[in-house]
Specification:
Its main location: membrane. The protein is mainly alpha-helical and about 300 residues long. About 70% of the residues lie in helices and about 0% in strands.
């Protein structure tokens, strides 16, 4: 698969995640963040493990547990905690900081050069998301802010580790995704039963919403996401995350009748443009310049006395 096509397919994941807000508010029972996280992760993970009939081997047992904890088991509850304690716009902005965290971790853990234009794209995309989702009366909550930042940092670390570890030979993207979803779901399960318990009833709309989030929003989307992470630079993939709040805003306008002001439209265009430019090679002005070696620059050879 060509790189542009791989980027486009990977971008489908955050675009699908952008439907989570509309599905949650319109179809799911309120006040059930942990149960929603559990239903998203564990059934999808078990389904992928059953379909692929592949279990981790050797050191991949603990690696799958670590990745599942960072990408799913820790991220989902913190995401919902942040969303419940903060206005949606503030929570989205905290999530949009992930590319900058990925840039720092890429440099520290992978020892890879971080292209300047992608860092600038991450800053511009975050600014654009701020314009789209933030409101002047947005209130801050210390616990919510801490949860949002910790969730973004955890998923950023999971993204970098996924890139660093790759996957075992002969193991499919579906299997690796299934391992992580199962590990994360098993971590969420006891928290769900202790803190929330099971909902008393679920109507048809809720069942349909959970099926969408579990099958499409999790099993399919995370498979596409981890596939891209394994084949593309981590920072390049993380920049695509801005598509999630942008999709949520677009759906709110198209399906829920939420108006978009000129300032929000400007932010939308800024974030989308920055995300696209972040996928392109560095422009010549930002590439390191090298001067051709001239004959005068070469060190003279020192003859050895005989």
């Amino acid at each position: 698969m060509s790189t542009p096509r791989l980027v486009a397919v990977t971008a489908l994941a955050p675009a699908v995640w952008g439907t989570t807000y509309a599905v949650t508010t319109e179809f799911l029972p309120p006040g059930r963040p942990l149960f929603t996280a559990l239903v998203r992760a564990l059934p999808a993970g078990l389904l992928l493990v059953a379909v692929t009939r592949t279990l981790p081997g050797g050191g991949w047992w603990w690696r799958a547990a670590v990745l599942g904890t960072l990408n799913i088991g820790m991220f989902f509850p913190l995401l919902f905690l942040s969303a419940y304690r903060l206005p949606g716009g503030v929570a989205a902005v905290l999530g949009a900081l992930q590319p900058l965290i990925v840039a720092a971790l890429t440099r520290a853990a992978l020892r890879e050069n971080v292209p300047v234009h992608r860092v600038l794209a991450g800053i511009a995309a975050t600014a654009g998301v701020c314009l789209v989702v933030l409101r002047a009366d947005a209130a801050l909550d210390a616990v919510g802010v801490a949860a949002g930042l910790l969730g973004a940092a955890g998923m950023a670390a999971g993204l970098v580790l996924t890139r660093m570890w790759g996957k075992p030979d002969g193991v499919s993207d579906l299997a690796l995704t299934g391992w992580q979803l199962t590990a994360g779901g098993l971590l969420i399960a006891p928290l769900t039963f202790v803190v929330e318990g099971m909902p008393s009833t679920l109507d048809g709309a809720a069942v349909g919403g959970y099926l969408w989030l579990g099958l499409v929003g999790t099993a399919v989307a995370y498979t596409l996401w981890f596939r891209g992470v394994a084949r593309l630079p981590a920072l390049r993939v993380s920049l695509l995350g801005a598509l999630s709040p942008l999709t949520a805003a677009l759906l709110g306008w198209l399906a829920l009748g939420q108006a978009l002001s000129p300032l929000q439209l400007t932010g939308f265009a800024l974030a989308l443009t920055a995300t696209v430019l972040g996928q392109l090679p560095a422009p010549p002005v930002l590439r390191p310049r090298t001067r051709p070696v001239r004959p005068d620059d070469r060190r003279p050879e020192i003859s050895r006395r005989t």
